[in-house]
Write a structure and sequence with these properties.
This protein is mainly β. The protein has one domain. The chain has no helices and eight strands. The protein has strands at 11-13, 20-22, 56-58, 65-67, 72-74, 81-83, 88-89, 103-104. The strands form four sheets. Strands 1-2 form a two-stranded antiparallel sheet. Strands 3-4 form a two-stranded antiparallel sheet. A hairpin with a 6-residue loop joins strand 3 (56-58) and strand 4 (65-67). The chain is elongated.
Length: 130
């Protein structure tokens, strides 16, 4: 061998360093060089020096990070977004590390009413008239 190749964005070296493989779920790689002191090629959006955002998750091709929209937060695996828990909200903007994305509603800002009422139970059919 006469040199080394860099893995493309969204990938990392495989276990034997003979090729590249997709970044693990919940991580990304932008394809830039990584020093031996930086550790893993694929990083989470929360620890990446470019993002450091608690409200971000890797985009579909794992080459960067996307922001969860208002009313949502990253899911537990950081592979997409999920609704904020009842009684909380989010603004869809970056959130510093170690801070909750979804925050409780302040007393001056009551929660929005649900989008639709809960489903009503169906009534049993009436017996046929005799």
């Amino acid at each position: 061998q006469t040199g080394c190749d860099r893995c493309p964005a969204g990938e990392q070296p495989n276990g034997t360093h003979t090729g590249c493989e997709q970044c693990p779920a919940g991580t990304f790689s932008d394809g830039s060089p990584v020093s031996i002191y930086e550790g893993d090629v694929c990083k989470t959006c929360q620890i990446s020096s470019a993002y450091r955002d608690n409200n971000a998750y890797p985009n579909a091709d794992q080459t960067g990070c996307d922001q969860c929209p208002a009313g949502e937060q990253p899911n537990g695996a950081y592979t997409g977004c999920e609704q904020c828990p009842a009684g909380t909200f989010s603004t869809g903007t970056p959130v510093p590390l170690y801070n909750d994305v979804c925050k409780p509603y302040p007393p001056s800002m009551p929660p929005s009413p649900p989008a639709s009422p809960p489903p009503m139970p169906l009534s049993p059919p009436s017996p046929p008239a005799s």
